[in-house]
Amino acid sequence: MMKYALIPLLPFAAFIVIGLFGHWIRDRAHWIAVPAVLGSFVLAANAFFDIAQGTPVRLTLYSWISSGSFQVPIGFYIDRLAAAMLLLVTIVSGLVHVYTIGYMRGDAGYARFFSYIALFTFSMLMLVMADNFLQLYVFWEAVGLCSYLLIGHWYERKAASDAAMKAFIVNRVGDFGFGLGVMLVFALFGTLQYEQVFAQAASHAHETLNLLPFGGAWPVNVLTLLCLLLFAGAVGKSAQVPLHVWLPDAMEGPTPISALIHAATMVTAGVFMVARFATLYNLSPTAMAVVAVVGGVTAIFAATIALTQNDIKRIVAYSTVSQLGYMMMACGLGAYTAGIYHLLTHGAFKALLFLGCGSVIIALHHEQDIRRMGGLKDKLPITYWTFVIGSLALAGFPLTAGFFSKDEILIGAWTAGPLGRTLTVVGLLTAFLTAFYSFRLVFVAFWGPSRVDPHVARQVHEPSPTMTMPLIVLAALAIVTGYLGIPGFLSPALPGPTSLPPAHESAASFAIMALATVMGLGGIALAYVVYVLKPALPSILAQQWSSLYAGSLHKWYVDELYEAWFVRPTIEAANDLWQWIDMRVIDAAVNGVAGSINLWSRALRLIQSGEVQHYALAMALGAVVILGVYMLL
Amino acid sequence: MNNLVPLSYYMILSGVVFLTGLVGVLIRRNIIILLLSIELMLNATNINFVAFSYYLHDIAGQVFVFFALTVAAAEVAVGLAIFIALYRGTPSVNVEEFNLMKG
User: Fold this and answer.
1) B26–A617 C-beta distance less than 8 A
2) B96/A contact by beta carbon, under 8 A
């Protein structure tokens, strides 16, 4: 029992120690955080092998809330899905911890940074291992909080604190639905334990709930409603359209955070949740269709934005949104195994890409615009080669991990009915765009003539080994994870909606694999033509399709739309409420009470004249009155 | 011999004395007169006590009067002491001058 409990508790202990004594620990914080997360990794690996050989682990640590029929324990449910996630979280977190030593060296908030990523690691592990909805929800919020704290690490920069707030608020929108979903689970099943809920789910499959009050009738399948409410949380956390706007802005945070939280782990929590509740989603085809469509739309939508961005981290951020859409689409089509498989490989190669961005940014003294890079491949060979491996995996280049997982998704999609076939086309298009923009980034940033500021250019050199080592390990993982037989490992834990035919050998699946490869290679080739062979072409194309180009560059104006529809009306309404309700009603009432008390006391204190005879007269008159009353009544 | 003076006479007498005292307390300004007026009110009640004690054949009323007299004596002693203390601060016997305790 202890060996499982220690997996999250080691990072938590590191958080407590660094959080409380950070003032004295300062630059030595990594001596506490790194061993803690390393220990956690060893234990997670041990747990992984336990579960690979045996049955899921069920553990109850203690009873957290106990009120009548409302029983919530803190417990662990580690099945194959959770075990795989544990490994992903601890590996990426461990590498990011090591990377941070180099990246954040000399930062004023060094110890604070380490305490927060330790807290994040703890929360994420608890989220993954949760055995009930409330625990999931609490740590879901906790990782959101860590995300907020870490995006705003450089809080003195307005952009960073704005981005942190945006991330938090946008996530609240989704989490509101998630919270309602958790309540509905309790209302419906009378318990929040996963296993009891899953066992009862099928018996509620055809129940409906009337959503209209006052005698209206709008019956909705209760499981569809439940799944959609829970999915609202996933949309927020995993940055799906329409709540994707926070993730690119979150790049204001330090790069290790972008790699750990905003690429590999936290943002995948939404996908993890949908897969975790596969039993529920399988019972509601409507909800699954919504998940699939939202995922597909997100995938291609974000990919079109990534085409034209110039900030190195934003390109990778939009590709993250796009890939999350891919995973979500797979889950919505019932290919949970493929979705989680892609989640794991993506965790490796996207963390790699972000850390690669980080080492470029450090080498160029915090330059993030790819138009002021170029020619870096000779100066940063390790970063370059690992970055290329990451980009190949992202583009789905044959024999990389991304190739296998992307194929798995596309084949899964193709076999999932007419909606699946449409989305397969979307997926193939996205794959083409992905390959194009990821190699646009490689060619513009690393190839060609140097456009770096000459003062900086002379000093460009490969960062310290603490930063290159994680790159090399992740590059290895970006290839190796394709060969570990992960889908076969996961599939027993993730039952699809119907037993999908084993389509891997069929001609159609081979055709899709070939088509995906062609798309990937085509994208890379096109990027090569446009950005290496004919460097004048991009600006000509931008002029030719100027409205499309501007739309993509401005992220299809979603931020502006939200600004006009939601942000400004909210601020105006808040201003009006402040001016009218707060100042004229609430403040006026409070001040009015105080004022009237003042007025009355001014009047009443005149009675107290200080003259003995006045009091005597009052006493005598009082006695007369009392006697009079007695005599008359 | 028993009923030479009817009870009502005593009542009227004590009422007149009491009212004299009350009016004295309310309208006089001299603080010594005030104290004397209070004594008048006390003694008016004493007359009542004695009269009822006699008519009801209950000795308790007369015992009560002794207590009232003792208390009155003590009260006068304390009252006069207070007046002297007051006089040291404000050389006056006019109650209207002692009005510092007001709201």
Assistant:
1) yes
2) yes
Per residue in A619-628, pLDDT (tens digit) is: 999 999 999 9
Choose, out of B19, B23, B25, B38, the residue to mutate when testing the contact with A (most A CBs < 10 Å).
Answer: B25
CA distance A312 to A325: 20
Task: Decide if A347 contacts A269 (C-beta within 8 A).
Answer: no
Interface A-B: count of C-beta contacts within 8 A = 32
pLDDT in tens, A346-367: 999 999 999 999 999 999 888 8
Using DSSP, state whether A131 is helix, strand or coil: coil
Answer whether B47 touches A (CB < 8 Å). no
Kindly give the interhelix angle for A80-103 and A269-276, rounded to the nearest 10 degrees. Answer: 170
Positive or negative, the CA dihedral A28, A30, A35, A40 is positive
* B25/A613 CB distance under 8 A: yes
Question: From CA A314, how far away is CA B8, in angstroms rounded?
Answer: 110
Q: Where are the alpha helices (DSSP H) in A447-506?
A: 454-457, 465-480, 486-490
Question: How many C-beta atoms lie closer than 10 Å to residue A61's C-beta?
Answer: 14
How much is the ipTM here? 0.87
Residue (of A334, A304, A338) closest to A319 by Cα position: A304
User: Length of chain B in residues, anyone?
Assistant: 103
Predicted TM-score of the model (pTM): 0.82
